Amino acid sequence: MQNNFKVIFIGDIIGKSGRNALQKGIEDLKNIYLPDFIIVNGENLAGGFGITKKTTDIIFSFGVNCITSGNHIWDNKEYIELLKDERILRPLNYHPDLPGKGAKVFNVDGIDLEVINLCGRVFMQPLDCPFKTIDDHLKDKKRMIRIVDFHAEATAEKQSFGFFLDGKVSAVIGTHTHCQTADERILENGTGYITDVGMTGSLDSVIGFEKQGALKRTIYQIPQRFEVAKKNLIINGLFLEIEKSDYKTVKIERIFKYVSD
Predict the structure, then answer these.
(1) Which residues bind Fe cation 1 (predicted)?
(2) Which residues contact 217 (CB under 8 A, 6 or more apart)?
(3) What are the CA-CA distances from residue 177 to residues 106, 151, 213 (Å)?
(4) Binding site annotation covers 20?
(5) What is the pLDDT of residues 81-113, one digit of tens each?
(6) 2 — pLDDT class (breaks 50, 70, 90)
(7) What is the DSSP letter of 58?
(8) 151 is in an annotated binding site
(9) 93/116 Cα distance (integer angstroms)
């Protein structure tokens, strides 16, 4: 349908394994979905925690248009310089004096699209209220295609956020838990929604990391060094078709793609 704008959103990329998975699978996804715009969550790009210029350069070289993030964006000091690149977002509801922006409007062949990034607060840091932050951000702004990455832990908070924004944005896409949910849908007023889009990295892992370290931390309750897992690589994502005139999602499809190790 030529009147629709097509978006691929790729779930949290976990370290080198995630970067390798995306490199091996991105061209197939482009050929299948013919996206106008590609977004990835990249807060775990560098060794599973934070971002670096080397890793973001790699991701952009694959044809990615925007990198969103979350609470791990601050884990590597390179964020200070990297967040000067407005294609890389940090959550909008962190303190405004911090480097970077939480939203960016892109123009794609005459079509305006805004990507917005926010963090939840349940079981996470006590940030500014994401509901009030997004409400203030949208106030008196012209309508356009808007994709929201809501980086949050609690399912109920994510679902509440989706319903809160139904009809106000084109899509609310949950990130952070690294486990893809099977509840993708178009809400009553035309907003595409999924509780968590999942991750890109090793399926043979605990949320992308080697099982033994995760098990020791869980069983013994002591700190462990987490290593990015390497086997059984997957790409989790979401495909959206959005109507260019009313900015509503008209098609939504989960992506779960196996790639070779």
Answers:
(1) 12, 43-44, 178
(2) 223, 224
(3) 27, 8, 18
(4) no
(5) 999 999 999 999 999 999 999 999 999 999 999
(6) low
(7) H
(8) yes
(9) 10
Predicted confidence band of residue 1 (pLDDT cuts 50, 70, 90):
very low
User: Which domains, from first to last, does the chain contain?
Assistant: 4-258 (3.60.21.10)
Q: Which two tokens stand for residue 193?
A: 């929604």
CA atoms in the 13 A half-sphere facing the CB of 33: 26
71 labeled binding residue: yes
Angle value at C-alpha 179, between 176 and 180, nearest 5 degrees: 105
226 token code pair: 């987490």
Q: Please, which residues have CB within 8 angstroms of residue 160's CB and are 6 or more apart in sequence?
A: none
Structure tokens at 65: 């248009």
The pTM score is 0.96
For residue 29, is pLDDT > 80?
yes
Quick one: tokens of 99?
A: 């480097």
Interstrand relation of 233-243 and 4-10 (parallel, antiparallel or unpaired): antiparallel
Neighbour count for residue 51 (Cβ, 10 Å): 27
Is 72 tagged catalytic?
yes
216: which DSSP letter?
Answer: H
95 assigned to a ligand binding site: no
Indicate the residue type of 213.
Answer: G
- Residue 4 labelled as part of a binding site: no
Q: Do strands 185-186 and 199-202 pair parallel, antiparallel, or not at all (unpaired)?
A: unpaired
C-alpha dihedral, 150 to 213 to 236 to 83, nearest 10°: 50
